[in-house]
Amino acid sequence: MSVLTRDVTCREAVELVTDYLEGSLSTRERRRFEHHLARCDGCEGYLAQVRAVVAATGAVGPEDLDPATLQGLVALFEQYKGDS
Ligand SMILES: [Zn+2]
């Protein structure tokens, strides 16, 4: 398709999670993000964890989470990636 399309790295995907959950990504960014998730169990799991924490705490989105909580999730994610 477009030559401008390139793969999202895991680090970029992690940074896009907040915007993704808030629905503030452009259609193209969202497609790239979802495309990465479809192939990457680590990022898919990370998104699921953030969603679960948001649901459990009653926060509207990741930005309403305690930064330490969010940081903990990112650390968990990076630990997971490091094992693979
Ligand atoms: Zn990934």
Task: Please characterize this protein's 3D structure.
There is one protein chain. With 84 residues, the chain is an all-alpha fold. It has a single domain (10-83), classed as Orthogonal Bundle (Arc Repressor Mutant, subunit A), CATH 1.10.10. It is 71% helix and 0% strand. The protein contains four helices and no strands. It has helices spanning 10-22, 27-39, 41-57, 67-83. Helix 1 packs parallel to helix 3. The longest helix is centred in the middle third of the chain and has 17 residues, at 41-57. The radius of gyration is 13 Å and the shape is globular. The model has no long low-confidence stretch (mean pLDDT 84). The structure holds zinc ion (ZN). Zinc ion binds next to helix 1 and helix 3.
SSE series: HHHH
Q: What portion of the residues fall into strands of 2 or more residues? A: under 5%
> In which range does the helix fraction lie?
over 70%
N-end to C-end Cα span? 31 Å
Quaternary arrangement of the chains shown?
single chain
Work out the helix count.
4
| Rg on CA atoms, Å | 13 Å
Contiguous uncertain segments of 5+ residues:
none
What is this structure's SSE topology?
Blueprint: H1 10-22, H2 27-39, H3 41-57, H4 67-83
Helix pairs in contact: 1-2, 1-3, 2-3, 3-4
The structure holds zinc ion (ZN).
